[in-house]
Structure formats: C-alpha cells, structure tokens
Task: structure prediction
Amino acid sequence: MTTKAWKVWTPEEDALLRERWADKVPTKRLAELFPGRTPAAILKHGYVALSLGPRDCGRESFSPVWEGVKRMLAGGKMMTAGQLAKALKVTPHAVQECMRDRHGTEVHVGGHTKVAVHSTQVSRWKLGPGPDVPPPPRKTKNEVNRDYSRRMRKDPEYCARQNLLARRRYAEKTGKLIRPDAAVKWMQQAPQHGAQPLRADDYREASIVRAAAFPQAGLSLLRSATPTHTTP
Result:
C-alpha cells in the first residue's frame, strides 16, 4: 500500500467522523478512533472535505467534587448528598449541583432513606445511568395516628416533649409567641429585700442609679424632673 493510497479516507471513516464530530472531546482523543491519522489531518478533513463546521473541542472540565463522588460510590454503593458532603468535606450545595448536572447520564437515584426520625425521605445516589427509584408513598392520616397512639402507649414522655416543641414552633410561625422585652424582664425580677433604700440624692443624680433598679424610661424621667424636696 502506497502512502498516497493509505491516506485516502474511506466511507466508513467519513461516517464515523460525522457521527463523532460533535463530541465535546479533545481532538487528540478523537484521533484515537482513526489509527494512523494525526489530529491536524482529522480537522482538515472535517473542515474542508466534509464541511462539518467548527467543533467544540475544548479541554474537559475537571470537577474534584465529582471525582470524589465517583470514588465514594464505587462498587454499587449508595449515599445521600449530605453523607457525600460530610465524607468529602464540602458543602451539600456543591454535591447537589454536581448531581444535578449528571443526573440521568452518569448518576441516578437508587433508593431513599430517612436521615432523622421525623424527616422526609432523602434520595440516595448511585453511579451509572438508569431510571430513578420512585419514593415510597406517604403515610395516610390513619397510619400516622396509629403510629402516634402506639408511641404514646410506649413512651408518653417522648410524645409530651414532641407536642411541646410542635406547639412552640407553631406559635413562632404564627407570631403568637411574644418574647418579653427588657422592661418586662425588669418588672418580672424578684424584689431584693436586702438592698439599701434609695435616698433623695439618688433621684437628683440619675447617673448613679443602676439599670437594675430603674428601667431606661424611668431614668429619662428622673433626668428631666426637678426635685421639690430636700435631703433630710
């Protein structure tokens, strides 16, 4: 085979080049599919002979998060985004972004689990393409009441604590939980019977009156008031 005949492109090579021209891989990797041809020859044949137009052959993006995810999920393991973030020492948002970009092509949902007693079902990720495992159906109202009654008989103190926390969260959400301000907290303090009685000089010199004895509103009134009595 002469050099000129060896360089002639076959119809099979033309079809393969048309098929893989749009792949976002470097030209050197594309040249691996055509033994004996240089990357420059492949680009010239695609641009001139086949008129395929420009191709996106930039450098492949490197993601350290994705490399760590592939290492953690190797061997068919399944982990949640929170578990992956904790193991890789990154933020959960970084793991979720990585999964969203590769969802359905390089990773899919292989199952669901609970990370806490009262949490919802969280997705467990698995390497490889494929359909997502649907989440389990939510419990009906009768099932929830049945589980609560069973838990109430087993541990009533736990249910009482959960009810107290739920009522407090509901009060904070609806704005019915009013936290006392500084003046109310001062009025709720227990009286100190062993304290020294106030003198008339204390009223005239408001700067020496402690904040624990008078609220801020009372101090402003004392500064503006004119005494009408004398020191005994």
The chain has four domains: 3-49, 64-127, 141-174, 184-224.
